[in-house]
Design a protein that fits this description.
22% strand, alpha/beta, elongated, 505 residues, 8-stranded mixed beta sheet
């Protein structure tokens, strides 16, 4: 009798565990398709994390950025780096390796410097902002007005004419702070300023100016504009608050030219069953002419190239085509991303997923994802095998990256962006500090494993990811059942154990 009770208790406990771990609510057919890719996913992880591709992402990226440290839009260096990438991909035997022409801006920085002349003489570190004009071969000197916001400048507009406006805006996050970099020059020119200096868009500084794109409003005169360090912006604020008379001299050889031709880079592994349907993934090639662009966006570029290389080395051929796209001229205005979208947007129904990594490759946590609830549930299931490297989280939203936003927003193609521990990203962003030193071999490997596993598994599904719908309604009952069964089974288990103890005592 005692052993019988024990058997019953064991049986119901096993039943409880089995039922609670019943499905995520997805149809069995989809779960079976995801399971069919798990051997390939495990092989990807083993090869990247402990096999002969260990540290390969870091080493390939170091070779690339050491050889092509600056890849500015419109530059000869960018085009040479694109030739290098195309030759690399062709040498590995990928399908359909080619470049697609894109008209891109050309701008050069030239020599530049700035100096505080009064009330104390000291040099300033500056970086002209992209598309800024220069100072016409002469020093530009003028009195200074310092403001913390556009609203403050508006209030002081009668004092602006003939001055150099310095923006000392607070850091409130990149999205809300970058408007001073992108629009500060024209806003100051509106009131007659002769130049503008913008505090670098970063929450942290070790006397490091950060460059980036700016845009002139055609309604106002073009004036030179440059970024300055957080430290100098705050110094100028203190001097200004003390009613000191501040004078600055600046010099810039920045110059704009006519558009020139660059190229997006494309390479594929053709699918076995639905070769006309694709999973697109990549990063952008270009960077600013400071640092080496190893973080922005060399890391995103190289985990994408390495993902394709790993899948090819393992001879994994998914049902639909894997398409690597490396976009050009992202930094100056998303030119490569927009051109690729315009050339291929009619193919959107055949794009299962589009992914770009352009927020730094640090310790990976999973993916940002933009798409319907049903597609997100599939992605959550696909990422479960990455739990052992703590990279299985799927965050809702943020899947529309810089070069992929049109696909996600306009065509409702599911989109993903790497989710990593990038809290320090803007410490180095667009600065001399963006170098290989920022990156970690192990983190790059884990991100590569995540990236390769995801694109392979999605490409191996029987259908493209759904555009609409939440969990199938019929599955909700399956999801709810365990909680109902749990209550009754727990009660039965407790009774059996209690009865067993009574007989034992």
């Amino acid at each position: 009798m005692k052993s019988g009770h024990m058997v019953i208790a064991t049986f119901v406990a096993a039943y409880l565990v089995a039922d609670v771990t019943v499905s995520s609510g997805l149809p069995k057919a989809i779960l079976d398709q995801i399971d069919a890719s798990k051997t390939g996913v495990n092989n990807i992880k083993n090869l990247v994390l402990s096999g002969n591709r260990k540290s390969s992402t870091y080493n390939r990226l170091a070779r690339f950025t050491d050889r092509f440290p600056t890849r500015l839009s419109g530059s000869e260096a960018l085009e040479k780096s694109i030739d290098y990438l195309l030759n690399d991909l062709r040498s590995q035997g990928f399908d359909n390796v080619h470049g697609e022409n894109v008209a891109v801006p050309k701008w050069t920085r030239g020599k530049e410097y700035a100096e505080i002349l009064t009330p104390v003489r000291r040099p300033m570190a500056v970086l002209a902002l992209g598309t800024s004009i220069g100072t016409d071969g002469a020093n530009l000197t003028g009195p200074v007005i310092v403001v913390r916001s556009f609203e403050e400048l508006e209030r002081k507009k009668d004092k602006v004419n003939g001055t150099i406006v310095v923006y000392n805006q607070p850091w409130t996050g990149y999205g809300s702070t970058v408007r001073y970099r992108s629009g500060g020059a024209s806003f100051a020119a509106r009131f007659g300023a002769k130049a503008a200096l913008v505090k670098s868009v970063t929450p942290f500084s070790i006397y490091s100016p950060h460059t980036g794109a700016q845009n002139y409003n055609p309604s106002f005169p073009k004036i030179p504009v440059a970024s300055i360090t957080v430290e100098d912006a705050e110094l100028l604020q203190r001097l200004y608050d003390r009613n000191e008379n501040i004078t600055i001299s600046m010099y810039s050889e920045a110059q704009n030219y006519n558009d020139t031709i660059s190229r997006n880079v494309v390479a594929e592994i053709k699918g076995s069953t639905h070769s006309d349907q694709v999973v697109i993934f990549g990063g952008h090639i270009d960077n600013w002419d400071v640092g080496t662009g190893s973080m922005d966006d060399g890391g995103g570029l190289m985990i994408s190239m390495e993902a394709l290389s790993v899948i090819k080395q393992l001879n994994l051929i998914p049902k639909r085509t894997l398409r690597l796209v490396l976009w050009t001229s992202e930094e100056f205005g998303l030119d490569g991303g927009e051109a690729y979208y315009e050339a291929h947007k009619e193919e959107s129904d055949n794009v299962s997923l589009i992914m770009e990594s352009d927020h730094g490759v640090f310790n990976p946590k999973g993916l940002h994802f933009t798409g319907c609830g049903y597609a997100r549930a599939i992605m959550e299931e696909i990422l479960k095998p990455l739990n052992d490297i703590n990279a299985s989280t799927v965050l809702e939203g943020g899947g529309d990256s810089s070069d992929t936003g049109w696909w996600v927003t306009d065509k409702k193609v599911p989109g993903s962006e790497l989710y990593s521990a990038n809290e320090d990203y803007f410490f180095f962003h667009h600065s001399h500090g963006d170098t290989m030193t920022v990156l970690d071999k192990g983190q790059l490997d884990r991100a590569t494993a995540l990236w390769a596993s995801t694109v392979y598994s999605v490409a191996n599904l029987d259908e493209v990811l759904p555009r609409t719908g939440e969990y199938p309604v019929s599955q909700y009952s399956t999801m709810i059942k365990p909680s109902i069964q749990t209550t009754s089974v727990l009660a039965l288990s407790c009774f059996c154990i209690w009865d067993l103890l009574q007989h034992t005592i």
